[in-house]
Amino acid sequence: MRFAADRPLGVAAATVLDYRELARRRLPRQLFDYIDGGAYDEATMRANVSDLERVLLRQIVMRDVSTRDQSCEVLGQRLALPVILAPVGLAGMYARRGEVQAARAAQAVGVPFVESTVSICGIEEVARATSTPPWFQLYVMRDRGYAEELMSRAQAVGAPVLVLTIDLAVLGARHRDTRNAMVGRPSAWAKIRRGLDLVGHPRWIADVALGGKPLTFGNLENAVPGASSPSDFKAWVDAQFDPSVTWEDIAWVRENWSGRLLVKGVLDPEDARRAADVGVDGVVVSNHGGRQLDSVPSTVVALPGVLDAIGDQVEVLVDGGVRTGLDVVKMMSLGARAVLIGRAWAWAVAAGGEGGVRHMLRVLGADIDTALGLTGRTSVTALDTSALYR
């Protein structure tokens, strides 16, 4: 599959980082920092990128690479690229009905979109807007009945994969959100600063705050009043994220979910073995984009240990720090089945809506195609560690 690099937004061959800069200009600071920030001093978030940059590809020449295939199969689904749009909360606050726009872009390119529990657009709205059902991401909640209802709704629209996020027993300290009064009980002055931040972005107000209504959590509308109230959302998080959850709870999920089951948030080889033992279909090596526990390993450092622990027992995917198609090739060369990208598509939808996400995916595809040709590979499924300098 070959991609032409169209040129939306006046940005020639826009990269992920170009979209980040455009998103920074267009979004209120509090929303941009919510996407862009990590936990504590953000060391792990930075390491996700820098450690991946240090992985070196081997340039292999004089091979017949006249035909190159970027497609692969993940959890029984054929993907045009080894890329999945990861669950990102509040995307409908970054662009008008942002989840719908991203899901349409994913479908157009031929990759899955994962609907977040805390999306603005509900699972039904996203499913109506596309002919390919989204995957669905779920947190393990104290209110098991509500979680069962969400799984039922996802199955009703044909979601083939449940992505169970398991690294939120407690919420990491995200200092940018605290400074921006996105969490906690803001002072009167903090509320004024938030208001001035919003007023300073009239284009966002017209397109999203007014044009993108209703700004409610579509999957949680019976539990959380509105996305414009961070304190209400934080109160729900504190009340619902369950620190008592164990691997035994996977059996409860299996009782209520008939599709494929992917657990997201595995870094330690022992956890990977436990996941395989309880019968999940796949794991995502993830540190939540550096948004939970700082000073844990980057995902590219953690990935080999997880693969050594579980081998071919279950499918192993990875996220964290992926900014280019070359990063995708590196992760796959280390053994990942595919990669999930979060911030990359969030920046792109904020900067350019559906067209921005579609273009960003096509640029990743062009990168992958180039890397295949210059590492002497004809398919992403032929990638292994021999494509790297160790």
Strand line-up in the sheet with most strands = 4-11-10-9-8-7-6-5
* CATH hierarchy: architecture: Alpha-Beta Barrel
CATH superfamily: Aldolase class I
What structural category arises from helix and sheet content?
Answer: alpha/beta
Quote the distance from N terminus to C terminus: 29 Å
Contiguous runs where pLDDT drops below 50 for at least 5 residues: 1-12
Gross morphology = globular
> What does the radius of gyration come to?
20 Å
Summarize the helix and strand pattern as letters: HHHEEEEHEHEHEHHHHHEHEHEHEHE
* Portion in strands: 5-15%
Query: What is the mean pLDDT?
Result: 92
Outline the biggest β-sheet. 8 strands, parallel
Domain tally:
1
> What is the CATH topology assignment?
TIM Barrel
Helix count, DSSP H or I runs of 4 or more residues: 15
Describe the secondary structure blueprint for this structure.
Elements: H1 16-26, H2 29-36, H3 43-53, E1 56-57, E2 72-74, E3 77-79, E4 83-85, H4 98-109, E5 114-115, H5 123-129, E6 135-139, H6 144-156, E7 161-165, H7 175-179, H8 188-199, H9 202-210, H10 230-240, H11 249-256, E8 260-266, H12 269-277, E9 282-285, H13 299-310, E10 315-319, H14 325-333, E11 339-341, H15 343-374, E12 388-389
Parallel strand pairs: 4-11, 5-6, 6-7, 7-8, 8-9, 9-10, 10-11
Antiparallel strand pairs: 1-12, 2-3
Helix pairs in contact: 1-15, 4-5, 4-15, 12-13, 14-15
